[in-house]
Every structure is written in C-alpha cells, then in structure tokens.
Amino acid sequence: MDRKVELEKKRKRLDEIRRSRELKKQEKEAEQAIKAKASQRDPGATDESAKERKDVHDLVESLLGPTTAVRSTSPGLPLGGAGEEGRPSSAADQSTTGETDKLSKKAQPPRLSVAILATTNIQPKETVVYAKETQTLESSFLDDESDREEETKPTPRPDIEDEPLGVVLDNDKKHEPAPSVPELSDEAKMEIMKSDTFLQFFDKTTRIVERALSYGVDVTEDYGGDSNEDAESAVGNLSKLQAGPCFLDEKWSRHRSVTSISWSQNVKEVFLSSHNMNEEARFDPDGVVLLWNLKYKSTAPEFVFHCQSAVMSATFTSFHPKLVIGGTYSGQIVLWDLRSNKRTPVQRSPLSANAHTHPVYSLSVVGTQNAHNLISVSTDGKMCSWSVDMLSQPQDKLELQYQTKPIACLCMDFLPGDIREFLVGSEEGVVFQGTRLGSKTGVHKQYEGHCAPVTGLHINPVSGRGTSYNNLFLTSSFDWTVKLWSQKMKMSKALYSFEVFSDYVYDVKWSPQHPGLFATVDGMNKLSLWNLISDTETPMCSEIVDSHLAPNCLHWSGDGHHIAVGDADGKIHMYNLSENAANPSHQDFDAMNYLVREMEERDEQPDEPSSVV
After folding, report:
1. pLDDT interval class at 604 (50, 70, 90)
2. Residue 434: inside a domain, yes or no?
3. pLDDT at 418
C-alpha cells in the first residue's frame, strides 16, 4: 500500500512538470505570433529583412549547394545553415556586409559538435482495475473524494521545472523518511501472547510444525546393504509382534483406565482413546477422550477433550471426519468437534427417561453418507438411534428383550454394510441377534455358551475371492474363554472354543485384512495373536504387555499392521506386525473356506463344541 501511494505522488508531480512546460511553450508561441503581426504592420521592415534573408540564402547555396538549405521548423523563424548547429538565422541579420564578403572569398567546411542529451525515466502507466463495489459507490462519496483530492493536490515547484524527471524522482526518494517500527513494551508483548487469537494461532501452527517434523527422512540409511541378511531377518520375524511406542499423558491419562480405542477411517495414523475417571484427581473432569498421532515423535496427545461424566465408549465416523462421539457413564451421548476451540462437548443428549439411564458401553455408526445413524446400547436394555446433527432426543428407540426378559448389553456389533441385523453381548453371558428395522423388530435368536459376562464381540469384516466371512463372529468373556460362532448354524452353539487362557479375557478383535487372524488380551498381561489357518490350538505368538495393570481393550488399525492395546493405568501400547503376517495370500482364503466348512459339518451333530483344554 505504501508503494502505491508513493507512485501516485510521483505521477502527480510529473503531470505538474509537463503542464508547466506546455504553458511555457504556449507563451513562446504567443510572443512569436505578436512579432509576426508587428512585421506585417511595417512593410518596409519586412522588405528589408526579406532582402537580407535572400542574400544569406544565396551565399549558403553558393557554398554548400542548393540542397543543403534547411528551413526552420518553427513558424516565423528564418532559414539557417546546417553548420550553425541549429542557431536561429537572426544571427545572420546582425552580421555586417564586410563579413559576408570574407565568407564568400574563402569557403569553410561545416563544423559538427556533440550535443548533450538529458535522459528521463518515466514510470509506466499503472493499470487500474475497478471492483464492482468501486463502480457502484454513492455520488456523495465520490464528490467528497474529489474535493479531498483538490485540497491535497500539491502546488508545482518552480525550482524543478528545468530539471530532468529522473533527477527529481531520485531527490524525492532521498528526502522521504524511512518507516519506523515501534518497539513494544513487555506489558504489550504479554498481552498479545495471552490473547485468544494468538493462542489459537499458536496451537494450530505447533500441530502443523510437529506433523511436518515427524515426516523425517533418514539421511544415513544405507541402500547398498546386504539384502540376504535383511531377507533372513524378515523371515525370522514373520510370526512375531514388534513392540512400538507407548502413549501416555501424565495429566490426562495417567491413572485413568482405557475404556475404548478407535482408529480414524480417514487419517490412518490417528486414533483415539476414551478414559474413565481418575480417583486421585477429584477436581479434574471425570471423562477424557484423547486423540493420538502414530507418526508424532512425541507421545503427547494431539487433541484433549473431556466432559463431566466418565466416557465408557468413543468412536470416529467416516461420514463426519471432524467429529468424535462418546457414550458416558451417566447415559448421555456427547459430541466433540475438532474444528472448535472448546474441549467440552459441542452437543450432548439430555438426561431423560426417553434415552439411556445406564452407562453406554457400545456405539456404532451405520448407514451411508446421505443416510446414517448413530446406534447406542446400554445396560438399561435400550437401543437408541440418533441423528448426529441433533442429539436432543433419539429418533428411534428399541427395548431389547428376549421372551419378555430385558437384556443388559455390554457390547454390540453390526454386519458390515448392514443397518438392520445386529448382535449384542449381555451380562448373563448370552449373545443375542436381532433386527432394528422392518416388520419384525426385536431380538429373535440367542447364542448360549459363556457362563460369565461377555466382554468382547466382533463380526469378521473380511471378504475376498467371492467369499464373505461376515457370518463368523468371536466373543470373549470373564469365563477365561474365547468362542467362535457362525450365524449360518441352525443350532446356536459355538463352532470352536479357545480355552488356553489363565485369566479373564477382556477383548477380542478380528484383523481387518486377514480372514483367519485375530487378537486377544487377558488378565495375565498377554497380547495373543491367533491364526486359525495355521493352528487352532495355540496362538501364533504372544507378547507380555509392559504394564503393572492388565490390558482391557484392543483395536486394529485399518491396514491391519498395527494393534493398539489399552491398559487399566491409562497407557496405550502399540504393536506392529510384519507384512507377511498381516497380509493374507490366495491360499489363506482357500484354507479358511475349507476350515469353516469342516467345522460346520462336524458341529451339525448334537455334540459339545470342540475345545482345547
């Protein structure tokens, strides 16, 4: 803006200089016109001057030839020779007749001289672009602007009229003072640093910088190493879990039990954890949700959200990547927005008998981008359907009962891509199957097999080579077992029972990529990785979780290469799988199909399910 103002001032000064020169030129022309009129009034003087001009003209022709005569370009000026360097012919009028005779006797060659020219640098004309608002201004405003311009118009400077324009501009630059930056006091600096605008800017930019620094490149990597050694080490680690970083925040997650973990479906390196209350910090919020970034070099959370009730479950939704949804111990559904500067929920459901009145232990978002709902279940025996845009009341409510007996739900899962059929695990150790839409809503089937509360329930999400494994699901329980079920079976009994555990089994999850791979965590601080294709009796590998408290939940990343395990002390343990262990081959799908058919044919007989003792 300062540069434009400076150019505008210089442009106005150049216009004034040109205007003064034009006035000067007009005055000279007027004087010449007056002289011409005076010569017309005195004919005698005119004849005498004409005769003198003729004599001079004849003399010049005799010396230089008839083509060398030059007529003056100015009106009213006599002719002059080419060797007189543009001087007016009035000098010849003042010469005497004797001098003319001397010139006629001895011809002299014309003399040439060097003329000094003054260079002028004129700025190019600025292209003015007018916006719509500028062209539709009110006339009164334009009149005020024109009056203001006339008042502030500078007067011409007579001392620079004869100076070159480039010199004038250089002199103006020297006289202009340099802009000075005011020095802020310590109080002003502290006031700026404590302002909300600065804090928001600093919080946002630090995340961007930290994310940029995390994408580092190892400049010391040796690309010419021994490939055979790398291949041998890779083969040796095919079936092993590799412990990764641990995520813990001393203020917000220490001594807060991890109640759930969820990975973002849009940003594959981001995951969240929900936490219970910290009994040692009575003045802190009871519920906390933390967002972590797997690629951060530091293990600090990227976002921190909290509410006044313990968060028992939380999840992302692919339809709203900027939203985080949580279910609380009080029965409320809360919603946080990553775009908001608030750590508290931007929406929450009311405490009402129309919704949940007991803890919400499971959440799921089902549907499509244009038609989707949030489904929640609680130990009060209710399944509520919510709209993410409005949590004032549930859109639909279903009382979960089996033969008039209410069901206290601890976990829930939907078939992939299905919004109707669901499975729920109960406190009684029974798994129930039901329908939430259609003419026959409610629970219509049960799977009995556990003798303690069902802690984990997960339907196989893998489909490949024309085969879907969505009919298979796993359950874990406090009865120290994990059971494999099939929805195709007419008899509601388990296909297989895994009974090698020595303590409570807190959670079980299928791999999102491999049809026969799943993971479990138990009270012995063990993370076990099972592959049904290779072995159904013992886990493929096990790792002891480095924690003095038992792990209580786990979750796979979307690509199946990472497993996040949360413990009762608030720490998130990350484990990595190798490529060959995480990704299935074509033979794995064929082997899984054969294994499932064999189990279903064997269990069609009225015997007890096979198990490993």
Report:
1. low
2. yes
3. 85
* The model's pTM: 0.63
Query: Does residue 112 belong to any structural domain of this protein?
Result: no
What are the CA-CA distances from residue 407 to residues 309, 425, 455 (Å)? 24, 9, 15
CA 69 – CA 52 distance, rounded (Å): 16
Count up the domains in the chain and report the number. 1
- Domain presence at residue 108: no
Cα separation of the two ends of the chain: 83
In a domain, 575, yes or no: yes
pLDDT band at 572 (very low <50, low <70, confident <90, very high): very high
Name the percent of the chain in helix, strand, coil, to the closest 5. Answer: 30, 30, 45
Query: Vertex 346, ends 301 and 361: CA angle to 5°?
Result: 70
Range of the domain at 525: 400-605
Cα gap 582→580, rounded to integer Å:
6
CATH of the domain at 425: 2.130.10.10
pLDDT digits (tens, 9 = 90+) for 73-120: 444 444 444 344 444 444 444 444 555 455 444 556 667 777 777 777
68-74 contact pairs (CB < 8 A, 24+): 74/32
Quick one: CA dihedral 437, 362, 575, 595, positive or negative? negative
Which two tokens mark 263?
């990975």
